[in-house]
Amino acid sequence: MDRELSRRDLLGGLAAVAPGPPRGTITPIAPRGPHAPPAARPAAPPAGGPHSLPPLPYDYAALEPHIDTLTMQIHHDRHHQTYVTNLNTALQEFPNLQSLSPEDLIRKENLEQVPEAQRAAIRNNGGGHYNHTMFWEIMKPGGGGEPTGALAEAAVAGFGGFPAMREVVNSAGLSRFGSGWTWLVLTPDGQLAVLSTQNQDNPLMDGSGFPVLGIDVWEHAYYLKYQNKRGDYLNAWWNTVNWDAVGQRYERARGGQ
């Protein structure tokens, strides 16, 4: 960024998405009392389309102190909702794609059915919806620790162990210029690998791998608490990881997705 943003600047003017994905302005959320953290937001009903905002599986405050309450409110209720709304709008022209799950929608073979002029809207918003849905699911209160079972064995085989794997994932997130994601994927040849994508792109879009774990490195995911210290956010994020959910994604990938 050209200048350091204050909390007021960020809340008043930070765009929901960068150029390419949909845009939306964030406004402050009124506090609900100092001793009563807000409950998780319920799922939003479909509004003119097949996709809806999934509820958080925990309270907004559940990931404190690693991810703050206000960031979770804004990230889920504003950013993710914007992707869902704009995806439903983009799909109005393509009834043949409306029955697809978010995961199937963003797969390479299905995106290629969309004319190039309209493809970016479905790519960006479909990716934003799928990526964020996964992101909420692979975090939990009291998370962290290390993987176990087959995933732990794969981390040893591929990276020498979990600490080394974590460092590679963090490094990919730190080196991502601008906005994007850092991913742990299972490649088509059955190996764990680390990738980084821009904006809301996902490894499913080019067939490079199945996402086992992904960390959002858009500034809206961390700026209120960490400002420009993306590395601190990445280090803290591992205290929220839900290894049960990540392990299930790995087993699913091994089974052919």
From the 3D structure, determine the CATH topology of one domain: minor pseudopilin epsh fold
**Rounded radius of gyration (Å):** 18 Å
The chain-level mean pLDDT equals 86
**Name of the CATH class of one domain:** Alpha Beta
Q: Oligomeric state of the chains?
A: single chain
Count of individual helical segments: 10
Instruction: Give the full name of the CATH homologous superfamily of one domain.
Output: Iron/manganese superoxide dismutase, C-terminal domain
Distance between the termini: 39 Å
State the low-pLDDT regions, or none: 1-38, 41-46
Strand order of the largest sheet: 2-1-3
The major sheet is characterized as: 3 strands, antiparallel
Structural class: mainly alpha
CATH architect. name of one domain: 3-Layer(bab) Sandwich
The total count of strands amounts to 3
